[in-house]
Amino acid sequence: MASKIALQALSHEYVNPFTRQRVLALDGLSLDVADGEFLTVVGPSGCGKTTLLGILAGLVTPTRGAVLVDGRPVAGPGRDRGVVFQEFAILPWRTVERNIAHGLEIQRVPKAERAATVRRFVELIGLQGFEKKYPHELSGGMRQRVAVARTLAANPEVMLMDEPFASVDAQTRITLQEELNAIARATRKTILFVTHNVEEAVFLGDRCCVLSRRPGRVKALVPVPIPREGRTWKLLASDPTFETARERVLRLVREEVGGEEHRP
Amino acid sequence: MAWLAVLGTTIAAWTLASATLPLPDYFLPPPTAVLAAMTDLIAKGILPAYVAESARRILLAAAFGLLVGVPIGLVLGISRRVADFFYPLLNFFQSVSGIAWLPLMLVWFGFGERTILIAVNYTVLFPVIFNALLGVRSVPRLYVDALRTLGAPRWRIVRDVLLPGALPSIATGMRLGLAYGWRALIAAEMLVGAHGLGFMIFNAQNFHLTARIMLGMGIIGLLWLALDYFLLRPLEESTIARWGLVQR
After folding, report:
1. Does residue A137 belong to the interface with chain B, where contact is any CB pair within 8 Å?
2. Closest-CA residue in chain A for B243?
3. Nearest chain B Cα to A155, which residue?
4. Are residue A150 and residue A93 in the same domain, yes or no?
5. pLDDT score recorded for residue A206
6. CA of B75: how far to CAs of B130, B145, B172, in Å?
7. Which residues in chain B are closer than 8 Å to A154, comparing Cβ atoms?
8. Which of A158, A263, A90, A10 is nearest to B243 (CA)?
9. Which pTM was predicted?
10. Measuring CA to CA, which of A74, A196, A256, B27 is 20 to 30 A from A214?
């Protein structure tokens, strides 16, 4: 199958502008993501996950290597690749509906069509009645739903998600993960989802990519052969396939964290 | 309610001091004399004319700050290169206050309206520029990145992100600029002497019309409160407070 995204020998080095110290964040990382695949990337903190996503988004230019999307090299941000950021990146001065419509406004989608799309996504994320609210009037989980809807409404080819549920409470996170799984099932978008949470990575991913500690490289690719229809936390709690994959990813990540104190 | 009590006490103490202290009449006239001066000046049409004059000048300066200062500040905030070039110049001139310019302005433009307006506009300009610049720079990078990944062109990032994000700071700049401008206006009116409240109180001193001086001072304060209430606050509340950027 043709790969939607191809990362070819990516290396990235940061230079601290004050100390002139160089930090190698990524070291020759290669990875292919198939069309319609949900790939999760997991690894110890500081392993270059966010850098990887920034490069894919076109916000960071890699020191070496190339990124191809549909065979074309990435040279800057573009609306073919939508991003959901770790922090709340929706605009505080726009209402829920105007935030969701933002990508469509940029694409000059006619007003009536825009309104219809917004309505559809407001429904999808279950925020009916909150259309005219400003972000500061919403809970953390609601805000992140709006961010996801904004990205989806712009209809990108690829969704890049950088620990989008890290700053919401545990209960909300579970709901959001299930909702995202349903959205992925319905839209069949190619999704690259970065997280440091192993359970989340295995729950969401068709495959789970484990990165080594810094400088980041692909340590292993773990397939999670569970159909999306069957992915709810209730069902997976007793699913041996899920359990095996989870154990395996956890072990791989622990090897990289390396501390004895992490062993059970 | 509390401040009504403070006001009442102050006026009572003032009346008492004026009546009992062994001072000449012009030194500390009682509140009633200030009130009498007010009715007299209103009847003669002087006070309304001077108030209108000073109010007109500060409102012109407010418009100047919004139409000239804000755009300059935004451009400086958006372009690091332009900012680096002009910053030393701006920094130098902001230290030379509008009042320090007055002697030179009097030579160039004479004792009149033009000199006053230039001095006040100049005073308003710098806080407005610097705060607009700061406002643009304090917009979270994340918002800009988010718009770039939605495929937004540069002008749209300026319009949808940088401008609204800078508004709280722009409002602060307008508030500071007008506060400085209001003081500079009174001082300029004193020195230039072309009508206005500053001229009124400075001129009154020549004739020992102390009640008129006190009246003018009170009105200067009251006019600022009106400016704050009718112009600055609505500006802040219509946007910033509603977006939750500033908690009131």
Report:
1. yes
2. A93
3. B150
4. yes
5. 94
6. 11, 19, 18
7. 150-151
8. A90
9. 0.84
10. A74
- Of residues B143, B156, B243, nearest to A136 (C-beta): B243
Instruction: Tell me the nearest-neighbour CA distance from B89 into chain A, angstroms.
Output: 27
Percentage of residues in chain B with pLDDT exceeding 90? 77
Q: What is the pLDDT along chain A (264 residues), one digit of tens a residue?
A: 568 999 998 999 988 888 888 888 898 899 999 999 999 999 887 788 889 999 999 999 999 999 999 989 998 999 899 999 988 899 999 999 999 999 999 999 999 999 999 999 998 888 999 999 999 999 988 999 999 999 999 999 999 999 998 888 888 889 889 989 998 888 889 999 999 899 999 999 999 999 988 888 899 899 998 888 888 898 888 889 999 999 999 999 988 876 544 444
CA distances from A65 to A48, A61, A74, B163, B171 (A): 15, 10, 11, 36, 46
* CB within 8 Å: B149 and A81: yes
CATH of the domain at A256: 3.40.50.300
B62 Cα to chain A: minimum distance (Å):
24
Judgement on whether residues A204 and A239 belong to the same structural domain of the protein? yes
**Closest by alpha carbon to A213, among A258, A162, A168?**
A258
Domain count of the fold of chain A: 2
Three-class SS of B148-193: HHCCCCHHHHHHHHHHHHHHHHHHHHHHHHHHHHHHHHHHHHHHHC
Nearest to A241 by CA among A262, A224, A220: A224
Give B20-72 pLDDT, tens digit per residue.
988 888 889 999 999 999 999 999 999 999 999 999 999 999 999 999 999 99
In the structure encoding, which two tokens stand for residue A17, read together? 């502008």
Q: Is the residue at B178 inside a domain? A: yes
Q: How far apart are the first and last CA of chain A?
A: 40
Query: Is residue A54 domain-shared with residue A171, that is, in the same domain?
Result: yes
pLDDT at A264: 40
Give residue B91's domain range: 45-241
Identify whether A71 is part of a domain: no
Considering the domain boundaries, does residue A69 fall inside one? no
Tokens of B147: 């718009």
Question: ∠ CA A40-A241-A196 to the nearest 5 degrees?
Answer: 30
Q: What is the CA radius of gyration of chain A?
A: 19
Q: Does residue A80 fall inside a structural domain?
A: no
- Number of domains into which chain B is organized: 1
**Does the beta carbon of A91 lie under 8 angstroms from any beta carbon of chain B?**
yes
Q: Is B41 helix (H, G, I), strand (E, B) or coil?
A: helix
Put simply, the chain B residues between 163 and 192 with a CB less than 8 A from any chain A CB are 164-165, 167
Closest CB to A91 among B148, B156, B161:
B161
